[in-house]
Here is the input.
Amino acid sequence: VTEDAGPIGPPDARIVPRFAGPETFARLPRLENVGGAAIAIIGAPFDSGTSYRPGARFGPGAVRAASKLLRPYDPALDVHPWGAQQVADAGDAAINPFDLETAVGDIERAAGQVLERVERLVTIGGDHTIALPLLRAVHARHGRPALVHFDAHLDTWDTYFGASYTHGTPFRRAAEEGVLDTEHSIHVGIRGPLYSSSDLDDDAALGYAVISTARIAGEGVPRAIERIRDRVSDRPLYVSVDIDVLDPAHAPGTGTPEPGGLTTRELQELLRGLDGLEILGADVVEVAPAYDHAELTALAAAQVAYALLALLARSS
Ligand SMILES: [Mn+2]
Here is the structure.
């Protein structure tokens, strides 16, 4: 294949049926099978930081399987997500399942190694613990991003059972470490009961802003997009999507389901609302396929990853 032929894509689904294709994200080539890539997808099969239902270690496989249905042109953003530049699947990171601190180091190292070969990383989790080492790796490669964080939960708690690294703490640790710019960061889709009203105060003290699901429901998605863009301003950003931002009716297969959430369509619209912003990296996390039905959650997560790739292609 010459350079003039453009990026290497998936096999043509009109010749090889989509369900017959390779076991990579969207049937894309493996990173080691292309000379280099602008964007890599990496799996982070890890769920030892989860506080309720385990199982997100099987998320990357489930999302890759559900991604086979994706097609190469996105009419919503008028872009070919893997046609504008080479996109490849870097496989799964090898992560210690027994020791949280070691696991966080494993993920940071794996992401750093892939980021020596590609510009941008889109990670499929895995529980939300993985966002901390991913932000460290992005910070080391590109500098300090703003964060747009879609989630039912703040994930800025301090410790849980004495543990500093859990899926409820990554954005407190990231703020403490200075690997993101909290003054331009925002949590989107927050809802549900908290331990205390001080949870919100502690989060605000770290510098974060919040748009709750109730506010999105009241004001509408276009106004929420304006609020997100006002907050981010012209800063480069990292996008972290916890699939539990969706209502359990749309994403039942997740670790800490929180009724009263967004629809998949609302999340897609919110993500497309980031069009034109500079995205340094992204993840979609917390798909736990054992609790899924009819691939609802995995399909939604595959669509999230597709939207992220479309945004990256638009900003390349
Ligand atoms: Mn989360």
